């Protein structure tokens, strides 16, 4: 049997409620020459039964008896099991649009210098309705990525060989393992995004997008510092105590951290916590206009704050085109 054009790595853990939708979205792809490597981390809610009942020999299950390394470990297992030259990501609670894999394979075929290609995404509420759309920068550079993560993790496809050469995902990262890998990729290779929206990203109470936000930001800051060879910390130290990243910050880095936290918390509607971070940031950078804006929005009527957040997202999407 010849190798498929692309392997989809689908990690699962107690994903019975959503995994059928993820599987259906992959089976409806216009590209048919692919495989799906389902890497299960010990699900107990019937997820494996659902996957095993799929009557499609393109799907195969890898069970991790000793699920060390968390999500990064599951992703690495999938990358190492993959048979295709390209690997796509897919989360068990998300869905890929029908043309996604075909367009990403075509793009990588036509652009041999590109190591990674992502897409824009629709952001779905828990009930499946569209909350927002995230459009991504078509040609992000390494300096662009130092400013922010320009990729939707579940939407990406990359060259398996290059990621293997880099050692894959760093399994010592509890969060932001994707951002760390993109930074390492972008230092040596071109990375791109399709302009089209080809992925549905679901937000819900168990998603890291709504929890552990401070730890996520600290891991991201460590990934940036490590990419610039600008930290004495090791990944083991950060894994043991993510707050050690904050203690190493310079004054401008502390201000940036609080600014990013305030902005994200406003987006999630956590106005009191956003206000706290804006105030702490202003202690380090009292003339930062963005921190003053975030402080004002944290005490403004909620309708005004929501309107400002919506306008900021629209502006971000326009700039990404």
Automatic annotation (TrEMBL):
Glycosyltransferase 2-like domain sequence ranges: 7-166
Record-linked InterPro entries: Glyco_trans_2-like, Glycosyltransf_2, Nucleotide-diphossugar_trans
Name of the protein in its database record: Glycosyltransferase involved in cell wall biosynthesis
Keyword list, A-Z: Glycosyltransferase, Transferase
PANTHER family on file: GLYCOSYLTRANSFERASE, GLYCOSYLTRANSFERASE EPSE-RELATED
One Pfam family here: TPR_14
GO molecular function ontology, one term from the record: glycosyltransferase activity
Similarity comment text for this entry: Belongs to the glycosyltransferase 2 family.
């Amino acid at each position: 049997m010849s190798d498929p054009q692309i392997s989809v790595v689908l990690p699962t853990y107690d994903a019975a409620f959503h995994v059928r939708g993820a599987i259906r979205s992959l089976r409806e792809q216009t590209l048919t020459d692919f495989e799906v490597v389902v890497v299960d981390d010990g699900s107990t809610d019937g997820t494996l039964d659902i996957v095993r009942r799929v009557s499609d020999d393109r799907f195969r299950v890898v069970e991790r008896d000793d699920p060390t390394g968390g999500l990064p470990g599951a992703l690495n297992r999938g990358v190492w099991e993959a048979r295709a030259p390209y690997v796509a990501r897919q989360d068990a609670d998300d869905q890929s649009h029908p043309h996604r894999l075909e367009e990403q394979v075509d793009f990588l075929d036509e652009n041999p210098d590109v190591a990674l290609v992502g897409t824009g995404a629709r952001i779905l509420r828990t009930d499946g309705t569209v909350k927002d759309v995230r459009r991504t920068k078509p040609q992000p550079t390494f300096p662009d990525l130092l400013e922010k993560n320009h990729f939707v993790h579940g939407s990406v496809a990359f060259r398996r060989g290059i990621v293997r050469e880099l050692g894959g995902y760093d399994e010592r990262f509890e969060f932001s393992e994707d951002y760390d890998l993109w930074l390492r990729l972008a230092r040596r290779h071109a990375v791109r995004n399709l302009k089209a929206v080809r992925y549905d990203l679901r937000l819900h109470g168990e998603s890291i997008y709504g929890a552990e936000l401070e730890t996520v930001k600290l891991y991201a800051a460590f990934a940036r510092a490590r990419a610039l060879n600008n930290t004495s910390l090791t990944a083991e130290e950060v894994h043991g105590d993510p707050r050690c990243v904050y203690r190493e910050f310079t004054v401008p880095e502390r201000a940036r951290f609080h600014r990013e936290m305030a902005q994200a918390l406003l987006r999630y509607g956590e106005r009191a916590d956003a206000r706290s971070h804006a105030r702490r940031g202003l202690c380090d950078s009292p003339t930062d206009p963005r921190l003053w804006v975030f402080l004002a929005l944290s005490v403004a009527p909620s309708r005004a704050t929501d309107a400002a957040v919506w306008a900021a997202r629209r502006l971000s999407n326009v700039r990404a085109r």
